Amino acid sequence: MRVLVVGAGAVGGYFGGRLAQKGADVTFLVRERRQKQLQSNGLIIHSVKGDTQLPVKTIVAGDTSGPYDLVILTTKAYHLNEVLPTITPYIGENSTVLPLLNGIAHFDMLKEYYGEERILGGLCFIESTLNPKGEIEHYSTHHRVIYGEFNGLKSERIEQIENLFSDANLDAVASENIKNDIWKKYIFISAMAGMTCLMRSSIGPILQSPSGPELYERLLHEICSIGKYQEKTMDEDVWEQTMDRVNSLSHGMKSSMLRDMEKGLPIETEHFHGTLLRLAPKDLDTPLLQTIYSTLSIYQAAQKS
Ligand SMILES: NC(=O)C1=CN([C@@H]2O[C@H](COP(=O)(O)OP(=O)(O)OC[C@H]3O[C@@H](n4cnc5c(N)ncnc54)[C@H](OP(=O)(O)O)[C@@H]3O)[C@@H](O)[C@H]2O)C=CC1
Ligand SMILES: CC(C)(CO)C(=O)C(=O)O
């Protein structure tokens, strides 16, 4: 199976690197600066699951290559307008696109762009970032990819992807209700990114602060109401499940959005919080979500000016 990983950042570099490490046929579509980095040093991962440094194949937009059987999309949401047209030449009649971005809004965009039949549902759990040298730093022990057909079926291509991921140094799970899983991750990350960025802190100090737990719980109620309104198969106890996950996080855990803010980079608040507000039922009160969206939009606007 020929795999194209679009972006070699914290997520793409990690999961693509783990596939390359197992000997899969992986190529990274990157921009020129990243290509030079990867050509001179190889792909470097520092991880509790095992460090690695390995040569990887790269192309830049416009290079002749492909088509690829599987395109794993791992850019930020705000890169998509620029990146999607550059992928088209590498997509053939039988190519499948597996996005690992957080959020939900990109799925409609991808279905419209490449055709609904090509798009799988996907998400990941990993806490990783690029250090100033372009090396991947993987923090907590999670490194899980979840993927599936939107109709829940175990198709031939799901079996092929299962083979691709098997024996690689990562966890991969084929889901029978991927839309529900995507929404649960979206609920979890919108609240976690929102709170950690609003308070500019990892999770532990927030949960130990005077009103932190109460604010977290209220925000999560707002977000779960939107999730239940939009995703009819959403678990009744999604709020409890998400709070259990939050309470089990390590003290120092940060969202990737906070790590990006700390580096002065753009953030995905439009894709996370802006989209949630647009999808909310008209009569739902969302003061905390609006506070987070407004606060982070001010940061975001300052990045552009
Ligand atoms: N990091 C994490 O812990 C997690 C992140 N996520 C989600 O995964 C997604 C990716 O996040 P993350 O990996 O952290 O982001 P990064 O910023 O680390 O990586 C994104 C990569 O996309 C590349 N890119 C952007 N535009 C193009 C282009 N036109 N062509 C080729 N490559 C391009 C960037 O390359 P360049 O170097 O050229 O800028 C960058 O390396 C986001 O939706 C995020 O929310 C989900 C779970 C965990
Ligand atoms: C919370 C975490 C690290 C879990 O994967 C995440 O998705 C993110 O910060 O983007």
From TrEMBL:
<dbReference type="InterPro" id="IPR013752">
    <property type="entry name" value="KPA_reductase"/>
</dbReference>
<dbReference type="InterPro" id="IPR036291">
    <property type="entry name" value="NAD(P)-bd_dom_sf"/>
</dbReference>
<feature type="domain" description="Ketopantoate reductase C-terminal">
    <location>
        <begin position="177"/>
        <end position="299"/>
    </location>
</feature>
<dbReference type="InterPro" id="IPR051402">
    <property type="entry name" value="KPR-Related"/>
</dbReference>
<dbReference type="InterPro" id="IPR008927">
    <property type="entry name" value="6-PGluconate_DH-like_C_sf"/>
</dbReference>
<dbReference type="GO" id="GO:0015940">
    <property type="term" value="P:pantothenate biosynthetic process"/>
</dbReference>
<keyword id="KW-0560">Oxidoreductase</keyword>
<comment type="similarity">
    <text>Belongs to the ketopantoate reductase family.</text>
</comment>
<comment type="pathway">
    <text>Cofactor biosynthesis; (R)-pantothenate biosynthesis; (R)-pantoate from 3-methyl-2-oxobutanoate: step 2/2.</text>
</comment>
<dbReference type="Pfam" id="PF02558">
    <property type="entry name" value="ApbA"/>
</dbReference>
<keyword id="KW-0566">Pantothenate biosynthesis</keyword>
<comment type="function">
    <text>Catalyzes the NADPH-dependent reduction of ketopantoate into pantoic acid.</text>
</comment>
<keyword id="KW-0521">NADP</keyword>
<dbReference type="InterPro" id="IPR013328">
    <property type="entry name" value="6PGD_dom2"/>
</dbReference>
<dbReference type="GO" id="GO:0008677">
    <property type="term" value="F:2-dehydropantoate 2-reductase activity"/>
</dbReference>
<dbReference type="InterPro" id="IPR003710">
    <property type="entry name" value="ApbA"/>
</dbReference>
<dbReference type="GO" id="GO:0005737">
    <property type="term" value="C:cytoplasm"/>
</dbReference>
<dbReference type="InterPro" id="IPR013332">
    <property type="entry name" value="KPR_N"/>
</dbReference>
<feature type="domain" description="Ketopantoate reductase N-terminal">
    <location>
        <begin position="3"/>
        <end position="151"/>
    </location>
</feature>
<dbReference type="Pfam" id="PF08546">
    <property type="entry name" value="ApbA_C"/>
</dbReference>
<protein>
    <recommendedName>
        <fullName>2-dehydropantoate 2-reductase</fullName>
        <ecNumber>1.1.1.169</ecNumber>
    </recommendedName>
</protein>
